[in-house]
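Methods — Computational structure assignment.
A single polypeptide chain was analysed. Its primary sequence is given first, followed by the predicted tertiary structure written as structure tokens.
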Amino acid sequence: MAWQLQTAKQHFSELVERARNEGPQVVTKHGKDAVVVVSAEDYRRLSGGEPSLVDFIRSAPDFELLDLRRAGDTGRDVEL
């Protein structure tokens, strides 16, 4: 469905609901397509979604740079 910009502004909640339930909604400005409103789910699918596990691991910090040694303190003795 195509929406004129002024109508889209006046009925924004309806525009969003239709994008979520019916699919992409075209907004026109001066009679020409200006933007398309899509659901967040459609956007993630179209934009490649979440990074792959490999990309996520590759983007992790270099753990060799971290000081992961434990402190020498072992706590205190507690009588039960």
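Note: Strands lie at 2-4, 25-29, 32-37.
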